[in-house]
Amino acid sequence: MTVSTGATLSAPEALTVLGALVLVLARWLPRRWRGPAALGSGALLVGSVAVLALTGPRWQFASVVGAAAVAGAFALAGWRARRSGRRPRRAKWWAALPGSAVCVALVVAGPVAAWAFPVPDFPGPTGRFPVGTRTLEWSVPAADRARGKKTYRAEERSRADGEKGARPLVVQLWYPAGRGQGDARRAPYLGRTEAEARTVSAALADYSGVPGFLLDGLPRARTHAVPGAPVAEDGGPFPVVLFSPGLGGVRTQNTAWAEELASHGYVVAAVDHPYDAAAVVLSDGRILRTRVTATGDPAKDEALAVGWTRTRAADLRAVLSRLERVGSGGADGPLAGRLDTGRVAVAGHSIGGAAALVAAREDARFDAVVDLDGYPHGTDGGRVEQPVLALTQEIGPDTDPDYLPRLTRVLESGAAVNYRLTVPGAAHLTFTDAPLYLPPVPGVVGSLGRTESIRTTADATRAFLDATLRGSPGDLRSALAAHGEVTVHRPGGVR
């Protein structure tokens, strides 16, 4: 995976910072340079700020413009005094120094804040295929989401699916695309349109309890996928990976991971779980907002989590059924006949990882499972027959003491060879896109860096999928060990 540039400033933003800094420091230049420096920096500021006003300013640069306005007011006062023939009043250096220092700090605060909360710069996929993306939407009857002969109770269907009983599912696909996509417009992050992206970004901020402006860079981002690109003509049909996001998460939360897999010949189908995701924007304009809330009571919350997990697992099974029709050519569209639904993995992050385990346990159509740091809610009462890869953060004193024992029981009771990869320096959000746009605080996004966390998650996942879905030769344990500590769970024992 190629490393992103990490750039956080556009050209107008960089010029605004430069102009503000020169204007603030002009007071300390030799007399003959003060006027030209103030005039030149002021002109630069006017131009760059005008461009930002037209293209959409970011909140991080409010302090920069504010500091420039204060410095400009003092410079303008001196200029007006000279124009009227009066001698400008200059404060003593010791009186002016604190104000200048504060203004410099405000100017510096702008790019620092932009570095902490950047517009996501997605790392380039490394596979041989360009990446395309499409979003599908289905209305799934409750009966289609039943597990075997067991259906959900009427009140559960009503609560989860709304008044009509049919559950709308929005699924985004990332897939290997044909050549010649170099100049095509890239898809926005978080939605089909920038308006949808803004809606989802605001909902994620509200769900997370942070001010919405902190995430205003997300709707500005562009991914590497091309909307509606033709499917690659060579190499297919392609294995399928279904993905379930974390609690309150949205289908796009692992876009970098999905694009990397797609560039290597996988079709990734990520699900928006309605009334669980922070916001699901339907094609008719309706917005379905999350209804998942914790009570604070551990026993009640665990029961709720089990119910949410089972609902998600039902969604995953329903999506697979729809994708089988696409793969067999039974549904029209450019992906018809291009999906190999005989080779399917199910993956998820956090509670989505638990849903992946439950879905695989209940549906033999899934051939492998990838659990990205997911606490195994609802996995009691049966074993998972398919091979499992569980990626976990570093287990420390703040980790739920039940997490590792419960996950170990799931892996040890399985019928296949299962793997647990503990990634040094990882936190819970390491396994998502969050390191690309949140401050690099180890307790929040881990200490692997903005792009290394993405690379680690994608490379480990791909090594596992290549071995389990494609039968690629090689030592899977060694491939995983390049990214952390590997524990192998074999039927009848641990190695």
From TrEMBL:
InterPro entries: AB_hydrolase_fold (IPR029058)
Key words, A-Z: Hydrolase, Lipid degradation, Lipid metabolism, Membrane, Transmembrane, Transmembrane helix
First and last residue of the signal peptide: none
Gene Ontology biological process terms in this record: lipid catabolic process
Organism superkingdom: Bacteria
Membrane spanning residue stretches: 6-25, 37-55, 61-81, 93-117
Gene Ontology molecular function: any one: hydrolase activity
Protein name per the record: Dienelactone hydrolase family protein
Species the sequence originates in: Streptomyces californicus
